[in-house]
């Protein structure tokens, strides 16, 4: 079984989950991430660290931040970064044992560095405590994210209020050391859902607000503004990714772009030991933006084209049946513009006997796409629940598709406005790629690229 991705970022070994504190600094992109350096299962959370100049080729760095066990800390949970006094600082959720557990005793801590390799907790910690907010301490209080609005510095932190509902809270600072609670920035409509990893991007007088829901395949986006009372006023909303893209982080590069990062969850693997003691994948960073009419756009990283190695073009007209690409690979990119009112599908990772394959079925008329997953693996132990997503029609009437296939990963972009990420764990090593339609495709322009770092 080959499940370890070849061009997505994965740790050299052991466990990885949320991207943390992503930042562009002095010509390099820094990726920090939740990491267990001792085991390929969740636990013992440190901050792993890697750097890149092109977002594709990564250099593994030493562990950046370890729990301060002598101060009662057992885990370094998710957080963000910012520049203070010319260096990257970290603001993250600190968790301990007993009264310092994640449910009721988490704190927000800061960490600094002198060499850009190792970060250490400052003596003044904690810089925020969960009793700073509304009446009673917040629970499940975690994942700070720093941003600037109207010349002031704020942080968002998620937390449950009075064990009744989940919300995102806003705090203000002038020096990154002394924070004060302002108010409840956003309240979740579903009280039982636990919010994680809130992010915000400022576009003039408007903002893009993102958050994940713990233990559910949900990552929401909102486009809106911030009121004078520092509350979110939403104009539009939707789903960031219908599959296993989770715990987003944001960074800004030297080209003026906003990059969104995400953990490609290992949950569907259900503890399966595959081709090594590793777990967790980072998505290829996505270029994101908002439109004048408050839509959220996600685009495949343009630099990705530099690792295309071969191209096969397929042109179809008034086509029915199944067309196989000559290119066979588990590391590929498939792009297509399909003009059709009828249902069609793209098939990935099909073996010679057609015992395993992953279909993505598109219905242009209804604006849906669907991954049945039943035939994706012969292994009974992995999660093969179906995934359904929605996409808007494009201006030219085509369904524009871009799929990044990388062993156990398929990142699917549709019309720049919809994404679905699949985690697939086939037992055989199927490499065949095809497109099919029973009722006919009017026209399709397809390219299949072999990809290699």
**CATH level-3 fold name of the largest domain:** Tachylectin-2, Chain A
Cα(first) to Cα(last) distance is 21 Å
Low-confidence stretches: none
Percentage of residues in strands: over 45%
Mean pLDDT: 96
Describe the structure.
With 453 residues, this protein is mostly beta strands. The protein folds into two domains: 14-299, Tachylectin-2, Chain A (5 Propeller); 310-451, Exo-inulinase, domain 1 (Jelly Rolls, Sandwich). It contains no helices and 33 strands. Strands 24, 25, 26, 27, 28, 29, 30, 31, 32 and 33 form a ten-stranded antiparallel beta sheet that branches. A hairpin with a 2-residue loop joins strand 30 (399-406) and strand 31.
Which terms summarize this structure?
single chain, 453 residues, mainly beta, Tachylectin-2, Chain A, Jelly Rolls, 2 domains, ten-stranded antiparallel β-sheet, five-stranded mixed β-sheet, 33 strands, 55% strand
Write the layout of secondary structure elements.
Layout: E1 14-25, E2 28-36, E3 46-52, E4 59-60, E5 73-84, E6 87-96, E7 107-113, E8 119-121, E9 128-129, E10 139-149, E11 152-161, E12 165-173, E13 179-187, E14 195-203, E15 206-213, E16 219-226, E17 232-239, E18 245-252, E19 258-264, E20 278-279, E21 281-282, E22 286-290, E23 296-299, E24 308-324, E25 331-339, E26 344-350, E27 358-363, E28 368-371, E29 387-390, E30 399-406, E31 409-414, E32 418-423, E33 432-451
Parallel strand pairs: 1-20
Antiparallel strand pairs: 1-2, 2-3, 3-4, 5-6, 6-7, 7-8, 7-9, 10-11, 11-12, 12-13, 14-15, 15-16, 16-17, 18-19, 19-21, 19-22, 22-23, 24-33, 25-30, 25-33, 26-27, 26-33, 27-28, 28-29, 30-31, 31-32
